[in-house]
């Protein structure tokens, strides 16, 4: 398979030149890893030396394998006690890391690696805590286990901070500080990974590292080379209402899905109710879709992610809850129905496609003045985003599918797609738009507080979301298609069943 420069290295370099552990090498091979990516080639040897390390590389270039290998190399299987803690900002990332570590270590006898996250029985975690070699968890649950003295840190020799920029945010910093304060061992290694490391972040994370070595493979803006980024103007008038703008955005999503070839796609929104509404509407049209947000149970979220990975779903509608770290290599289309509030979050969203050197496409729906301002902000950062052309060549982001994946894709593409009209209720049409984004921007820029003696006891800060949104600007006509096109907008009584109202307007 053709790889981008993000992960491409000399063909002669293999993992067996970096490692001697035959069980781990076998796990790497069975997991599909024979040759290391650039970040793996540079960071694994350094991490195996036991030094503290900061590793910066683009999303999708193989950072999880780096600290997975370092962790598996560090532990002693004879000691049936926790020896490594991997901290992740979200439940979904923690589960994914656990699965990667288990796969890499599948041939290591008696290896025990468990995930400790909110939404799962505390009793089960207590039973697993002190019989696991490797602990993977979110800050809130790890803090709860430490507070209740159910997790021993006596033998901890390695701590991994994944998505360190997020872990150093206001939400998690006090919890990370607390976790480190409970380490009984005086000598342990700390490694931190992120796609971005600002001066402020380096200052914050330096508290937890001693003379760290640095591995940096991000030159300029940390976007993947093979991800094509486009935008669409979605409004038809400067005076259109807020509700009409969102109707335009929904219809733009329908047109994109009907005319841009893709395997699996992710659509990002900024509100919990909108993810539910959009997923429902897509399913009604015949697109097999699911949604993930903070309002559904952990079991349901895990089930949706499993369906996505098993190719039972074609589309996932989601918030920034899973903008980071989630790796499904068939995802080659990302749509930002709502733009995020920060460039960093945008980079993580776009990074859900083009994983590990493959190719992908990201499309941004631009409607309001704020959308346009954010688009310009991205360009000022050196990110190339062009208007979506009439034709997008699938050859630019095609990949070779397995026989099973091709079968699933054929089943999805044989699904009958029927356009569903958007029926607006004019009683709820509020042209004033959504709540102020200025307040959100101010909140996003708030400086990190110094660690306080009073530690926040939030056990599920992993899932906080903001229901504010950007309003949507549209002069894009899709290619000719056999799919039925949306009918003209009509007005309907308030009690009509199929009313389309973006529900975030009222929550």
UniProtKB/TrEMBL annotation:
Sequence motif: Q motif, positions: 13-41
GO-annotated molecular function: ATP binding; hydrolase activity; RNA binding; RNA helicase activity
Domain annotation DEAD-box RNA helicase Q: ranges: 13-41
Key words, A-Z: ATP-binding, Helicase, Hydrolase, Nucleotide-binding, RNA-binding
Ranges annotated as biased composition (Basic residues): 440-451
A GO CC term attached to the entry: cytosol
Basic and acidic residues: compositionally biased ranges: 403-419
Domain Helicase C-terminal: 252-399
EC nos: 3.6.4.13
InterPro entries registered for this protein in UniProt: DEAD/DEAH_box_helicase_dom, DEAD_box_RNA_helicase, Helicase_ATP-bd, Helicase_C-like, P-loop_NTPase, RNA-helicase_DEAD-box_CS, RNA_helicase_DEAD_Q_motif
This protein's record includes keyword ATP-binding: yes
Sequence intervals crossing the membrane: none
Region called Disordered, residue ranges: 403-472
Alphabetical list of Pfam families matching this protein: DEAD, Helicase_C
UniProt domain Helicase ATP-binding: residue ranges: 44-215
Coiled-coil segments: none
Catalyzed reactions: ATP + H2O = ADP + phosphate + H(+)
Statement: the UniProt record of this protein carries the keyword RNA-binding: yes
Family classification: Belongs to the DEAD box helicase family.
Name of this protein: RNA helicase
